[in-house]
Amino acid sequence: MLENSPPKIELTAVTKSFGEKEVLRGIDLKIGKAESVVVIGGSGTGKSVLLKSILSIMQPESGSIKIDGEETIGLSGQKRDVHLNKFGMLFQGAALFDSLPVWQNVAFKLLRAHQVPRKEAKDRAMATLASVGLSADVGELFPAELSGGMQKRVGLARAIAARPEIIFFDEPTTGLDPIMADVINELIVKCVRELGATTLSITHDMASARKIADRIAMLHEGHIIWEGPKSDVDHSGNPYVDQFIHGRADGPIKMQVRKI
Amino acid sequence: MNFLAPIGRTFLNFLASTGHLAYFTSRSVSHCFRRPLYFGAILRQMVDIGYYSLPVVGLTALFTGMVLALQSHSGFSRFDAESAIPTVVVLSITRELGPVMAGLMVAGRIGAAIAAELGTMRVTEQIDALTTLSTNPYKYLIVPRLLAGTLTLPLLVLVADIVGVFGGFLVCVYRLKFNAANFISQSWQYLEWRDVSSGLWKAAAFGFIVALMGCYNGFNSKGGAQGVGAATTNAVVSASIMILITNYLLTGILFAGK
């Protein structure tokens, strides 16, 4: 990150609650341009809420979220559209539109938001599908006809098709076998490098985190409790991080298990 | 005083739901008047709601008209008023039965389908995905369904009116041995444009209600398959109840003092 340029993404004291449940309790996080940050943390710690708050899908109660130095909380109308145009996102379950063929899923943003002519949009969608290792035949299929791994690849193609400045990955390897998970990780690294995009990923798959991250942050009980370069994660000195990355049941993180 | 708590909670929940629905409605309607409008999506929804509902609405109207003629005959023959049957059939169908039966059938077919589709999109994050693809979900999902429902149901009711009266005609002519020419002339004799147009205004309102309740329940569904199931049931039940209440209110307004 250049010293004088503002961070690409900057969160300050962001809070978000659902009823009486406080999910985010004052998140501070800075991500530099073209940096890849992975947020790790257990299920239900608010990782997805964090991404959706940055995307303005959810509105935080307080705090500040800046993209390129500009406040984004409370944006509406055209300003919100410009803000969202910077983003691409790969969802946990791919979230492909099952009423549309694969190529229209990939070209969705090009066709509707960027008003690219249909022929050109289809050519670009097919080229993007090829870049994630899928043939032109797949473009004519519907999402329901694809395997989980192929759906993830199509989701990745859709996320990068409009060449966004910022890409979010929500649990990119969940539900995949280890080999396919590694294929997806490789594709993420390759595509992000080619685009020069800033990325924020959330996962509890440490193999994935080690592969795609420049920096790792850990979210626990609504706070970022540790962050640092990925090379430091194995000797963070933080008992929560140690327990999480080694997947131990014993430690300071207690699972909420209800007695039957 | 603990027995009052559930009553208070239910009342507060009702107020919250009403406010939520009012906000959703005003937001959806305001998007109907702002660009961009996705005409392809509107046309697709019109075909779904109108064309594919024709068989079920047509059959319902046909048998409603037939039963109406039979029942009227069994009642009116007691005081030699069989000649009024064509008028009763045509007025009942155009003013009430056409729009209400079509509205209820479409609520079952389309309201449920809209709620299930949007509910599934909600729980699989497809609606969130639309936002990340710089597409407003209200514009892409809600507006086409609201406009298609409001514009298409009057056309559907026009067909239901014709088929329903034809059902009455079939029973009167082929079973009750009426003269066909007499049936047609008596049908027209007391029919006014207002009888038909009032049914069409009602149909537009019912089409809006069906689409709105399908969209509202689907768009706000949560909790996986069970949530989608609940959204579907709520969409059909709430649309049906609102159709019956709105029908009474509109009848009072459209035929006030006449």
What's the number of structural domains of chain B?
A: 1
Strand content of chain B: under 5%
Specify the CATH homologous superfamily of the domain at 1-77 and 198-249 in chain A.
Answer: P-loop containing nucleotide triphosphate hydrolases
Sequence of secondary-structure elements of chain A: EEEHEEHEHHHHHEHEHEEH
Shape of chain A: globular
Rg of chain B, alpha carbons: 21 Å
> Can you summarize the main beta sheet of chain B?
none
- Alpha-beta classification of chain B: mainly alpha
So what's the overall shape of chain B?
A: elongated
Overall number of strands of chain A: 10
Query: How many β strands of chain B by DSSP?
Result: 0
Description:
The complex is a heterodimer of chains A (260) and B (258). Chain A is built from 10 helices and 10 strands. With 260 residues, chain A is an alpha/beta fold. Chain A has a domain at 1-77 and 198-249: Rossmann fold (3-Layer(aba) Sandwich), CATH 3.40.50. In chain A, helix 5 crosses helix 7 (148-160). The N and C termini of chain A lie far apart (51 Å). Chain B has 258 residues and is mainly alpha-helical. The radius of gyration of chain B is 21 Å and the shape is elongated. The A-B interface holds A 52, 55-57, 81, 84-85, 87-89, 91-93, 95-98, 108-109, 112-113, 158, 168 and B 121, 124-126, 128-129, 131-135, 140.
